[in-house]
Task: structure prediction
Amino acid sequence: MLKSKYGELAPRYELISKAIDVRLKKKMTQEKVAQKMGTTKSSISKFESGDYNHTVDFLIRLSGALGKTLKINMV
Result:
């Protein structure tokens, strides 16, 4: 059961990890990303901690704020 739960959550944490890596490489604070997205630092913090399951629209805006494009792929 634990293994299947991890499998379900793995894509979420992979995305979070990638977003954090990009943000840090660009030397951006959570506050700066939030400002560029028109949201709050708290919202970015919740995303990065995995505490909240954000919408695709949020992820698209986050990607744009980080200078990236969100690409979703089903395999």
In short: The mean pLDDT is 92.
